[in-house]
Structure formats: C-alpha cells, structure tokens
Amino acid sequence: MNDTPATDPDALARLARFGTLPERVRPEDMTLETEVDPAGANGGYNPESAWKFYSCVALDLGL
Hints:
0% strand
C-alpha cells in the first residue's frame, strides 16, 4: 500500500468516520501473573459448603 493521502471522496469519508486502527497490543501486556496460595483460592476443601459447587444435569434442567 502507498502512504499518500486519499483523494477519493469515499476514501476521505471512510477515513473521517473510522480514522486509524489502534496500536497493536503486545502479548506481554495481555497476561497477568499473580501468586496463588497453595491451599487454593477458597482456603482448602470445606465439606459443608461443597454442595454449592455440585453440578447435576437433572438439577440444572429442573427435573
């Protein structure tokens, strides 16, 4: 592609409406590394609250 300014009226209208593309995002900027507690995010296994995370198709369908 050439870097000359557009003189076509349609091209000028597109340029006025859409402008230019945003800058490219580097892959390093798309990731975030955090330290995790060895016991897990919820502090380990709690059998009294384990039923909250149980998934069953029959329950999900309301059967």
